[in-house]
């Protein structure tokens, strides 16, 4: 059973394992990337990254500690001079493991382990993405520029008006300041000359159309005027005609039946 065994022994003794990892670590620091199996690459990552963090503090003590693991003075100088300067801003995660498929013969899983900051292709892609984000931020700042220009224009006009006046003429200064503000507002709301000319032409066309319509239509008297004219004409007419008009206005009496008329005549004869 593998109880309390937290790391991979790689089928080797402890001395053999430590020697192999120190040689692999020194070759990784010198060449910046190496090809090996996936199991060895994972074991090497746990072995190398603490040494790289130790290299950020360039002292004799840290150099001696790293040399006790690597046993290679050229690898130590490379680590403290070049690698530490390039990886100084990164807070961990200095290596990357990329799987490369299976090996011919024993069909073992192969991988490539490399230092992250030495892969130039991936770094170029990241810089391209960063430039896009900065362009978007610049576009947002340009929109706010016209507002600042208008505010500066108002302040300059107010200063010009209130500059040479004495203190006693406060009312005149206030009036001039208000007129300056009104001019600035008018400049904001002013339309271009082309639009103003088009509006004037449209207004003239509408007025001419209205005049033509009025000239074509005959004048129609209002109902009040008609009633007044009718009353005046009725006064001038003859009195006989007025009587006829009154008779016409009276409601027509309903006609009696023949039987009712005959009965009425008989009753008169008897009397």
Name the structural class.
Answer: mainly alpha
CATH topology of the domain at 14-124: 50s Ribosomal Protein L17, Chain: A
Give unreliable regions as ranges.
none
- CATH-assigned homologous superfamily of the domain at 14-124: Ribosomal protein L17
Number of helices, counting only DSSP H or I runs of 4 residues or more? 11
The total beta strand count reads: 3
The rounded Rg comes to 55 Å
Residues in helices, as a percent range: 55-70%
Sheet with most strands: strand arrangement: 1-3-2
Q: Give the class-level CATH name of the domain at 14-124.
A: Alpha Beta
The averaged pLDDT comes out at: 76
Largest sheet: 3 strands, antiparallel
Strand-and-helix sequence, N→C? Answer: HEHHHEEHHHHHHH
Explain this structure to me?
The chain has 271 residues and is mainly alpha-helical. It has a domain at 14-124: Alpha-Beta Complex (50s Ribosomal Protein L17, Chain: A), CATH 3.90.1030.10. The chain has eleven helices and three strands, in the order αβαααββααααααα. A three-stranded antiparallel sheet has the order 1-3-2.
């Amino acid at each position: 059973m593998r109880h309390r065994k937290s790391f991979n022994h790689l089928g080797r003794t402890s001395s053999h394992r430590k020697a192999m990892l120190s040689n692999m670590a020194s070759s990784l620091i010198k060449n910046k990337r190496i090809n090996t199996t996936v199991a060895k690459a994972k074991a090497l990552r746990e072995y190398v990254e603490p040494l790289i963090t130790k290299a950020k503090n360039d002292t004799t003590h840290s150099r001696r500690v790293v040399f006790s693991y690597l046993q290679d003075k050229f690898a130590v100088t490379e680590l403290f001079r070049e690698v530490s300067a390039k990886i100084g801003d990164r807070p961990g995660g200095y290596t990357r493991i990329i799987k490369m498929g299976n090996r011919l013969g024993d069909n073992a899983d192969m991988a490539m382990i490399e230092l992250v900051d030495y892969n130039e292709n991936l770094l170029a892609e990241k810089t391209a993405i960063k430039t896009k984000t900065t362009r978007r931020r610049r576009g947002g700042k340009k929109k706010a520029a016209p507002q600042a220009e208008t505010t500066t224009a108002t302040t300059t006009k107010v200063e010009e008006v209130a500059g040479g006046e004495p203190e006693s003429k406060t009312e005149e200064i206030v009036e001039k300041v208000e007129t300056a503000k009104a001019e600035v507002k008018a400049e904001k709301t002013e339309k271009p000359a082309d639009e103003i000319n088009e509006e004037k032409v449209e207004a003239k066309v509408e007025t001419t159309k209205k005049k033509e319509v009025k000239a074509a239509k005959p004048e129609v008297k209002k109902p009040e005027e008609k009633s007044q004219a009718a009353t005046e004409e009725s006064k001038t007419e003859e009195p006989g005609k007025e009587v006829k008009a009154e008779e016409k206005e009276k409601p027509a009496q309903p006609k009696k039946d023949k039987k009712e008329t005959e009965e009425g005549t008989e009753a008169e004869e008897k009397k």
